[in-house]
Write a structure and sequence with these properties.
This protein has 14 helices and 12 strands. It is α/β, with parallel strands linked by helices. It has 2 domains: 159 residues, D-Maltodextrin-Binding Protein, domain 2 (3-Layer(aba) Sandwich), CATH 3.40.190.10; 147 residues, Periplasmic binding protein-like II (D-Maltodextrin-Binding Protein, domain 2).
Length: 367
């Protein structure tokens, strides 16, 4: 007699359970559609990790329609072009300059209250300088899991900046002027009298970093001796000086990026790049700028740049990728010097000033 009421109770409980489950599912769907349909505040957007994050970024970026990108490497124009192919509704305005100039421009625009740039890319000294001045936006990206902690400028909830490429500074030369056989095999070979008047340095931080690494490796005496080789210092970036190596206007330089020679040689230029210790590792970092006027497009670009697809585009320029699952095209069987890791940021900035002053005294004023 009691079995029937108990069965009815069990059935009622079962239906209540199913109804509750359906309600929870519906609430989840409504919550997800609400997130996709509403506008997130900037603070919410930069750290949002919902399943609909990409859709939110896409919808916002379509409305923004453009992106401004400051960087300090020539190949990033190609990266921006590939991004535009994938997202044709976003026009990328690219401005490239030496890293110090990139930092200066972002700083000056911020002080003037003109917020024009969305994403910035440069080496650690420049990116670190912007971060120190609170000009970078902390953010999250699903691509972060593919990068080691060593290349992440971490914050409390995400990163302020993270690595997107590595290049290496060492010997570049034009084989029409200096044959592969006679070109220096060791850095000390630059002191050979046959290279007097043929050696050039890039300007700014590129040459300063190489000189600093050479002093650490070979001593101040080596730089003193090299200054007697009638070295010409050009007020040009490493990339611009590489173009002079390609044309033959500069026969040889120890301040040349491997990526520039890689690209030029693939196009048929008579150039070679040779790693000679010290080989200075040049790590590039990128970030969203604080108060970026187009945050959706900025995050979409940061995601793309650090994605496997984006990093494979980076590698095509002869650059090396810091991402765990992307291989580089150029063999890296040489010792690398990471100056930024050797000194705290403030000390490193002082060292750069010292090395640049040394170049002025030994190589420029002397002439």
């Amino acid at each position: 007699m009691t079995a029937l009421p108990m069965a009815k109770n069990v059935t009622a409980i079962w239906w209540l359970f199913k109804a509750g489950l359906v309600l929870l599912i519906l609430l989840g769907v409504i919550e997800q559609s609400d997130a996709a349909g509403r506008s997130l505040t900037p603070s919410e957007l930069f750290f949002y990790q919902g399943a609909d994050r990409e859709q939110i970024l896409l919808e916002g970026a379509k409305k923004e329609g453009q992106l401004v990108f400051y960087n300090s490497h020539t190949w990033f124009k190609s990266v921006a072009q590939e991004f535009e192919k994938k997202y044709p509704f976003i026009k990328v305005s690219v401005w490239r300059a030496d890293g110090a100039d990139v930092m200066k421009r972002v700083l000056e625009e911020s002080l003037a209250g003109r917020f024009l740039v969305d994403v910035v890319e440069s080496t650690e000294a420049n990116i670190g300088g912007l971060h120190k001045r609170q000009l970078l936006q902390e953010h999250h990206s699903p691509e972060l899991r593919f990068f080691k902690d060593e290349v992440l400028g971490k914050g409390k909830r995400g990163v302020f900046y993270w690595a997107d490429r590595e290049t290496y500074i060492s010997l570049g030369f034009n084989t029409n002027h200096v044959s592969i056989e006679e070109a220096p095999k060791r850095t000390q070979d630059l002191l050979d009298p046959k290279f007097k008047g043929k050696i050039s340095f890039a300007g700014g931080a590129t040459a300063a970093r190489w000189v600093g690494a050479a002093i650490d490796t070979l001593g101040r005496d080596f730089i003193e001796k090299l200054s007697r080789q009638d070295v010409t210092v050009h007020k040009l970036s490493g990339a611009a000086l590489a173009n002079l190596v390609v044309t033959g206007e500069v026969p040889i330089s120890p301040t040349i990026f491997d990526s520039n020679m890689f690209v030029a040689k693939n196009k048929g230029a008579p150039v070679e790049w040779r790693p000679m210790e010290p080989v200075v590792a040049n790590v590039g970092y990128s970030s969203v700028v604080a108060k970026a006027p187009r945050p959706h497009a900025a995050l979409l670009f940061i995601d793309y740049l650090h994605s496997k697809e984006g990093q494979q585009v980076v590698v095509k320029g002869g650059l090396s990728s810091p991402r765990d699952d992307v291989d580089s095209l150029v063999p890296q069987k040489f010792k690398k010097t990471y100056l930024e890791a050797k000194y705290p940021l403030d000390e490193y900035e002082k060292k750069l000033d010292e090395w640049e002053d040394l170049i002025q005294r030994l190589f420029i004023r002397k002439r």
